[in-house]
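Worked Example 4.2. Consider the chain below.
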Amino acid sequence: MSANHHQIAEGSHSQNLFGIIHPQLIFLIVFITILLLYILAAVMTNRKYKKWPHYRIASFILGVLLAILAVVGPLANRATIDFTAHMFSHLLLGMLAPLLIALAAPMTLLLRTLSTRLARKLSSILKSWPARILTHPIITSLLNIGGLWILYTTNLYSLMHDNSLIHLFVHFHVFIAGYLFTISIIYFDSVNHRKSFIYRAIVLIIALAGHGILSKYIYAQPPKGVPIEQAEIGSMVMYYGGDVIDAIIIFILCLQWYKAVRPRNHELPTVKAH
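Applying the procedure from the previous section yields the following structure tokens:
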């Protein structure tokens, strides 16, 4: 009887171990592949055109490394049992990493690297109505902030720790939704469906309010299975940590806005001496 229990325990341990390692391996392969493709594209474009800025390469590398840190290794392991660690992972994967990757202008680099025929096809896809919808600030806000509300106010948070596929889906959604939201608010790549600065600023304010209200809701109503103490600390990490990253986005948006409306000629008129 004890032998059977021991075998069952070993089988359960192996299943749990698989549930932890297998998604992390997939995350690692995906993000490392993206990183290598970006570096390869930068090398290729440097042979044909003006040198691709080093700060963009550094920004992309740092963004991918932070995304990997969020879903692979000690922090990712801790996040499965500690809500505070999960929230740090959320900030890295869904906010900071997408921002750094957006700063790297990956679509512009891709268009420069592809052949003329493929670049035209990609450009036509980026101009299509599905792309217009997926990069609309309101839609990206619903995908990003709305997705978080669903995650933390339903059973989805507890389910993703018991199912590897749900775990993968949720984390990829958090990353992709965070990236789409970022590029819909601040433009670094060439954008075919531009919205005005005032329009994007209003959407950003509403999205930030939704993020802040959610963090307060989590403080008062923890997700299923999350201890109250962890929920309180995790919600504060979400609230104040999100504010720091949001402040960077606001600064960039205001800087772009200022550059777009400032007078072209800043030279003061000369006064002739009499």
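Residues 1-20 have pLDDT under 50 and may be disordered. Residues 126 and 191 are 8 Å apart (CA to CA). Compare this with Example 4.1 before moving on.
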